[in-house]
Amino acid sequence: MSTPPTGVRPIEDPTGQLELALIDQFIRSRGYDSAALDALPAELRQSLQKLASAYAAAKLAEMESRARYVHELHSTE
Length: 77
What we know:
Elements: H1 16-29, H2 42-75
Helix pairs in contact: 1-2
């Protein structure tokens, strides 16, 4: 396995940071700290992570849908 040359950044998902922020927002809205999830019982932690992931996916899909709609509005003028 080779290592990338110095100064070369790996390709990142363009929505990755937004997804992580949405997950963190969801977890905080439930009264938990995302940095302290490891201290929670496994069942609760997994349930919370699944709900947070579904929430983030739905929000990202909503944002993408809205962006597509706005793009279509502007491209038909």
